[in-house]
Amino acid sequence: MEQTLLKRKMFLAGEWVSREKTIDVENPQNGEIIAQIPAASKEDAILAINEGVKGAEIARNLPTYERISILNKVANWIEDRQSLFARTIATEGSKTIREAEKEVRRCIQTIRISAEEARRLHGETIPFDQSSGNENRVGFYQRLPIGLIVAITPFNDPLNLVAHKLGPAIAAGNSIIIKPSTLTPLSALLLAEAFHEAGLPKKVLTVITGHSSDIGDELVTNPAVRMISFTGGYEAGKIISSKAGIKKLSMELGSNSPCIVLSDADIPDAVDSIVSGAFWAAGQNCLGVQRVYIDEEIYSTFEVLLVERTKQLRMGDKLNELTDMGPLITEKEAIRIENLVEETLQEGAKLLCGGRRNGAFYEPTILTNVHPESKIAKEEIFGPVVILDSIRDLDEAIQKSNNVMYGLQAGIFTKNLDFAFRAIKDMEFGGIMVNDSSDFRIDSMPFGGMKQSGIGREGVAFAIQEMTEQKVVCFKIGSNF
């Protein structure tokens, strides 16, 4: 039976619009074209910005209780349509239906947390009389919306990463333009529909679909845009920051996450956590485990158990509830991983399992004997490949963990508090997960990295801080007061 092609409109300043030029959206599992979306032009980007400036004034004047109400209505709308959202994520992207269902639940939580944090936009009083001569001054600061925000989102979490930008922006009283990946735009458009149905005023939100080559420069460089929130690769982030001009930047630029397993660790728990952390969403996860440093005392045992557990993963149809891992986002990405692994093997690495490609599918792969300066050890793989290495002690593990230019999150497995706190102090990462893999996150915690992993922090309350500006108010009162 032939599937009807879905033709989606984009959400331009509160209006659903189509364009003659379109972009095909494919299911990476089989290459089937599942939808067509508008290919926005530079003129569309200019229109979105001009209308977004007006929307910023509307959003700024939207009372807090109305922002809270809209956000809760959005969460309710999604909650009533969880199956639709999950199937959309799983069909247009790499995630299995179980992974997609979890993303939908997290999105609902992200929006609800945004509603809660809207009521916590507090300032503080300032004791101006701490400085001599200011005894007759009193005042405070408050947090105000920054204005129009452009958010650029990737393919790997096509719903919840959009929610992490959209929810805080609305909670803080901003307008926002979302530019989703052209590979997975349907989830973002569904989320726009939720906001539309919840009564968000027109002009406050745009979800613009198009190629970065056509609309990216305008969105990034236009001075009317007051902030850019970007999640993606380091090279793209570097280009954006060089073009943006004087505006606020928040960037999450990926990682090359390590996990340390010490001899006193709960080995079965560490194995399960690392397998999940390495191969969730086919390894296309900025928090995904890429390097594992294992105490030499337990290395052999750990390697056997990790390979055994990895081989149990079921790869196949994303919509099958029994499937553990789906395809990469495109066959081109799978070929990139295949070539990277082959290059590493030619350098002397040893393949413990996996290493085979079938179209866009690439088997969960474990390598050992990888040279620490090889490309696969230094850069972000962003695929289902993990590297094992033995270490003599914690000091060596920390040194090796820090020997990359990324620093998003890391994990350490140990029952020794002294070891845990030494890792917390010395590892150069934005988050240290103790007795968890690097791939642990809740949507309310501060999330961001050090070094090339980015600038700023996400996590709803912390994103709201990034999306607001402080205004100081000082009263000079009469001497007879």
TrEMBL record:
Molecular function in Gene Ontology? lactaldehyde dehydrogenase (NAD+) activity
Q: Does the keyword Glycosyltransferase apply?
A: no
Q: Which domain of life is it from?
A: Bacteria
Record Pfam families: Aldedh
Keywords of this entry? Oxidoreductase
Among SUPFAM superfamilies, the record links this protein to: ALDH-like
InterPro entries, sorted:
Ald_DH/histidinol_DH, Ald_DH_C, Ald_DH_N, Aldehyde_DH_dom, ALDH-related_metabolic_enz
Residues in domain Aldehyde dehydrogenase?
Answer: 16-473
What the record says about family reads: Belongs to the aldehyde dehydrogenase family.
Q: What is this protein called?
A: Aldehyde dehydrogenase family protein
Give the organism's phylogenetic lineage.
Bacteria, Bacillati, Bacillota, Bacilli, Bacillales
